[in-house]
């Protein structure tokens, strides 16, 4: 084979080699949340949660960061209303009936298994309608976010419905942000938690631990696909 042929073969081998994904290792959530479920009982069926905050920015980035090492969350019917100046629901596509339209899937920590919009999350929901956000991020926090116009000084209330399922039967007694059972590399950890943020920007990203080379080349799109193949159809 000619030198050019060898170079071309090498490039093609690199591009189409099966990417290797290293699981993040027990990474904590970003700071600055307005609601943490830490310490509360983990719901096996849909339960409503809410939190009220005062806007400090003209645009507020509403962010849900979640992790569920042994199982999955179903998130549905997200709303945000202005308590100071009466408003309807300011969240667009809060029930995910239009897929991820109006939302950003940030995969904040580069977790190997991120979420997806679906019609069923391993038996969870949807709470209403036909779709929900299903997330089983492992050993790190995946996140979805939406930017909403707000008025500085006004009071807002965020409401959402959340359900969960424990596939590996290793759930802790209550929500906890990190794995504490000694498993800090795969789906048998017991870190299960959700955090809500309302900031001017996305919460700061954490530290990722991907393998170099193929992951950097192929990007986060294939990362999500690889994760769904492992967790959503397991």
Protein traits:
234 residues; alpha+beta; five-stranded antiparallel sheet; 10 strands; globular; disordered N terminus; disordered C terminus
Q: Could you please describe the fold and organization of this structure?
A:
By secondary structure, this protein is an alpha+beta fold. The protein has one domain. The chain is 14% helix and 29% strand. The protein has helices at residues 3-16, 214-231, and strands at 35-36, 47-54, 59-68, 71-82, 104-105, 116-118, 132-135, 142-149, 155-166, 192-199. The protein has a 5-stranded antiparallel beta sheet, with no helix packed on it. Strands 2-9-4-7-6 form a 5-stranded antiparallel beta sheet, with no helix packed on it. The longest helix has 18 residues, at 214-231. The N and C termini lie far apart (43 Å). The relative contact order is 0.29.
């Amino acid at each position: 084979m000619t030198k050019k042929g060898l170079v071309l073969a090498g490039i093609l081998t690199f591009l189409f080699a099966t990417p290797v994904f290293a699981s993040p290792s027990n990474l904590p959530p970003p700071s600055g949340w307005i609601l943490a479920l830490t310490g509360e009982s983990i719901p096996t069926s849909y339960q409503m949660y809410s939190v009220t905050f005062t806007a400090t920015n003209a645009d507020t980035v509403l962010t849900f960061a979640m992790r569920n090492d042994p199982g999955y969350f179903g998130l549905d019917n997200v709303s945000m209303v202005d308590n100071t100046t009466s408003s309807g629901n300011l969240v667009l596509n809060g029930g995910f009936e239009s897929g991820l339209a109006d939302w950003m899937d940030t995969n904040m920590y580069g977790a190997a298994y991120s979420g997806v919009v679906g019609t069923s999350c391993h038996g969870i929901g949807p709470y209403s309608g036909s779709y929900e956000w299903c997330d089983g991020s492992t050993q790190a926090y995946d996140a979805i976010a939406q930017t909403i116009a707000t008025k500085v000084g006004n009071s807002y209330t965020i409401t959402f419905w959340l359900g969960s399922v424990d596939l590996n039967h290793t759930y802790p007694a209550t929500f906890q942000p990190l794995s504490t059972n000694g498993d800090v590399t795969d789906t048998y950890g017991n870190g299960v938690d959700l955090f809500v943020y309302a900031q001017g920007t996305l919460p700061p990203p954490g530290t990722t631990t991907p393998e170099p080379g193929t992951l950097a080349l192929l990007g986060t799109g294939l990362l999500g696909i690889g994760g769904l193949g492992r967790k959503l159809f397991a």
